[in-house]
Specification:
Blueprint (H helix, E strand, L loop, with lengths): L1 H12 L2 H24 L5 H8 L5 H19 L2 H7 L3 H37 L7 H29 L2 H22 L8 H9 L10 H25 L3
Helix pairs in contact: 1-6, 2-4, 2-6, 4-6, 4-7, 4-8, 6-7, 6-10, 7-8, 7-9, 7-10, 9-10
Length: about 240
């Protein structure tokens, strides 16, 4: 499995999609952090925490990265070569999901570090009230973890659907249409939607309305595992 994951990581590192989405994640978070710190004159400890948790937005792009990667081999026909090397289709799907998770985690760590380098000195210069070191660590680790978990879920969904466009559209509709609608219509469901879980994992201040970060990560991991299992089962039953 280690070699399989390593080969999948090599594939990711040699694609323009990976570097493009990683760069886009860094640019998006940098823009939001700079604007938030520059324009917010009345910074509070909660404001500071939410500004730093902006690094979690990288998870939106790693989710897309996972979906594109999971479905990409079917679109380009390279899945046949992958299965020649790894005949076990379950192992092939698992290796791809794990590799996407690690790649997403790497992007999340890089983006969180970038947000910290930009925001912390600037906030200190503005005498903004800072959260405790433990809270800051939780926010940065949570944001990075969310990016990794998002990529893993996206990879499972992409492998299940086998269509990049469909996977991306479903992800975006789920996040921006279905999740808010469900949260508004069904009381108590909001914390269990992808949007609610992502906010909780990233460490956004929610006044107790979201799940604890650790619990949210476990629920998200359960969703990702479900998609991966369905993708493995579907792949095993289909002709390539």
């Amino acid at each position: 499995m280690t070699r399989l994951v390593g080969s999948e990581l090599l594939k990711l590192r040699t694609t323009r999609t990976f570097w493009g989405l990683a760069g886009a994640a860094g640019a998006l978070v940098t823009l939001i952090v700079v604007l938030s710190v520059a324009l917010d004159a009345g910074l509070t400890e909660d404001n500071v925490r939410n500004i730093l948790a902006t690094a979690g937005l990288s998870g939106l792009l790693t989710l897309v990265l996972g979906a594109v990667t999971g479905a990409g081999e079917y679109r380009h026909g390279t899945i046949a070569w992958t299965l020649l090397v790894t005949p076990s289709r379950t192992r092939a799907v698992a290796g791809q999901v794990l590799a996407c998770g690690l790649a997403g985690l790497a992007i999340g760590v890089a983006v969180s570090a970038l947000a910290a380098v930009i925001a912390l000195p600037w906030l200190a210069a503005k005498d903004a009230p800072m959260p405790s070191a433990a809270d800051l660590l939780q926010v940065f680790l949570g944001s990075a973890s969310y990016a990794g978990l998002a990529a893993a879920l996206g990879a499972g969904l992409g492998a299940l659907l086998r269509n990049q466009v469909a996977a991306i559209v479903i992800v975006l509709v789920q996040l921006f249409v279905v999740d808010p609608t469900l949260a508004a219509l069904v009381e108590g469901l909001g914390p269990f939607t992808l949007t609610g879980l992502g906010a909780a994992i990233s460490g956004l201040d929610s006044d107790g309305e979201l799940l604890a970060p650790g619990l949210a990560a476990l629920v998200w991991a359960g969703y990702a595992t479900l998609f991966a299992a369905l993708a493995a089962l579907s792949t095993a039953r289909r002709d390539i």
